[in-house]
Amino acid sequence: MRKPRKLIVKVFRNLHMPGVMWSVRGPDGKILMHSKAVLLRNATFIVQPAGREKVRREKKKVVHAFVKGELVSDPQESCEHILGLNDNVLCSVAYNPYKNDEFVVANNLEIKSAESILITSLDDHAQLLAQGVTTE
After folding, report:
1. Of 24, 67, 101, 119, which is least packed with CB atoms within 10 Å of its CB?
2. Using an 8 Å Cβ cutoff, are 93 and 103 in contact?
3. Cβ 13 vs Cβ 103: under 8 Å
4. CB 132 within 8 A of CB 88
5. Helical H segments across 17-89, by residue range
6. Domain coordinates of the chain in residue numbers?
7. How many CB atoms lie within 10 A of CB 89?
8. HSE toward the beta carbon, residue 71, CA cutoff 13 A
9. Predicted confidence band at 90 (pLDDT cuts at 50, 70, 90)?
10. Is 107 helix (H, G, I), strand (E, B) or coil?
11. For residues 38 and 130, what is the distance between their CA atoms, to the nearest angstrom?
12. C-beta of residue 48 within 8 angstroms of C-beta of residue 29
């Protein structure tokens, strides 16, 4: 039996939907889905500098930051994986273009990658919880 291919996606906050909703863009650049929760493995954090500067200059939201990684599609596996069946600690990840140049964890340490990340909205607040993080 053939092993399923890994689907590498980019996840970003949808600025046009009410509340907190995440858009998932496939490798071909097309939106695959919108969701209130997405789990990725082998994630990297990307901020496009020109977009960040435009936000700072114009004081308007523009999609310019996203998390790229392998989409985990099995809900049971997602829950078990992120709830930490291993001993890794969950870290809260944040990005604010007015305060930071990149995504950060506690003490404003720039985050480069994570073994896994749950991107969700809890009570209409964006929440990014990562495991196995690598900082600068």
Report:
1. 101
2. yes
3. no
4. yes
5. 49-58, 75-82
6. 8-135
7. 9
8. 18
9. confident
10. helix
11. 12
12. no
* Of 73, 113, 69, 111, residue with least CA distance to 94: 111
The two tokens of residue 5 are 């291919």
Taking only the tens place, the pLDDT of each residue in 10-34 is 999 998 888 889 999 999 999 999 9
Query: Within 13 Å and on the Cβ side, how many CA atoms surround 8?
Result: 6
Better-scored residue on pLDDT, 125 or 54: 54
| Residue appearing with tokens 């496009």 | 48
Structure tokens at 20: 């907190």
pLDDT tens by residue, 72-89: 976 555 555 555 545 557
| Structure-token pair, residue 94 | 């944040």
Place of tokens 């310019």: 64
**pTM score, whole prediction:** 0.86
